[in-house]
Amino acid sequence: MNLAGRAVLVVTADTPLGEAIAEQLDVNPGTTPIICSGSREALDRLGTDRFGAVIADDDLTDDCVDALRQTLSRMEGTISVIRIGSGLSDDAITKPFRLGTLMARVKELIDRPAHALMAPVAVGPFTFHPESRALEHRPSGTSNRLTEKESLILVELLLAGEAPVDRDTLLERVWGHDTRIRTHTLETHIWRLRRKLREGRSEARILLKVPGGYSLNT
Fold this sequence. Notes:
Oligomer: single chain
Shape: globular
CATH class of the largest domain: Alpha Beta
Number of strands: 11
Helix content: 25-40%
Largest sheet: 5 strands, parallel
Strand order of the largest sheet: 2-1-3-4-5
């Protein structure tokens, strides 16, 4: 079955949570929630259906959870994957969370034009591959994989061209409306991304802090 690109796969063994998420998704016109209570069922659906986004509960503990995580990791870049879980990680929305925060993130990922940025793009001496989040250093041929948040930050800066992107815009577009995320969190990710965009011991900076926010010097 070829579902619409706005179909959202929800994978969680927490039945009340899954139903609450599905209820919120049903409110959005054109968005179709598909709930799977286990990893095996989710793998089967991913093998036959097309989804615009996947909401995956990191707290799953069934026998196929590792296979599901590997599959989702490979698919990131072709579909949007939102992880929810009890443990604080760079790629997850931490429980407990507001459903409004999650829904804003789903809508942003499905609707945003950043999905058009699928072709590799030059960033100074690097080539960024959005589909795999790989940052390739062309002179040496070495590659470094960005985290999801680093990749989203870089995409927003690339879409802005030479114009600066302010902190509030980055916080909203990368983390949604999660009020627990502070400017310090953004600055930490910017620092890590800047280090990955450095060429050897060069002090030349590609990711700049400018009046009004951040921009790329490519």
